[in-house]
Amino acid sequence: MTAHAGPVRPARTGHADRAVRARKADRAARHAFRSRRVRMATFAAVLLTAAAVLTAIEVITGLLDRPWHLIPYERVSDVAWNDAKALGITAALAALGLIFLLAGLLPGRTRMVPLQGDDPAVMMGVNRRGLKRAAAAAAEDAPGVSRVRKVKLRRRRVKVHAETPVHRPAGLGQGVAASVQERLDRLRPFPPRSVKVRLRAEKD
């Protein structure tokens, strides 16, 4: 069986300043915990540094009339640019550049989940494993759950797969979903996440 629970919306307080500060705090936390794409940036920096070093060596040794010929530019100058091999290399380089561009523009998957706050100067977060453990612990505390098999964390949803000794667990899923949702509402992850529970009976 499958059950759902949605995030609890905060009550209207009538204080516009507090709502604005909360939105600013959410944006600040999301920006602070955004993935920096360290591996991709390091790889791109190494490639650019290597290309710059090779170019500098060729230029300096050429000025000294002792070219090292690390780059076979004589062969490159004789290449027909409409040749299939040349077009394939340029297409590969263009694709590599596009990958680096997209990696810099698109947000990566961060290991930290920002938590909602009321002060933009105070940013809090929890790692994805910690949030999964919190959801699993809340599900295990719910009546009728014998074991949590797996917790999947999505951007807008938490999926909990659990087992129960009850052979006909009708209605138990809603209780498990409510227990997990209550734990999430206390942690206040950003963006808020709904809960989906898949409960199955234990095998004899």
Automatic annotation (TrEMBL):
Disordered as annotated region, ranges: 1-20
InterPro entries, alphabetized: DUF6286
Keyword field: Membrane, Transmembrane, Transmembrane helix
Top-level taxon of origin: Bacteria
Record field: transmembrane: 40-64, 84-106
Domain DUF6286: start-end pairs: 95-200
Protein name (record): DUF6286 domain-containing protein
Species this chain originates from: Actinomadura algeriensis
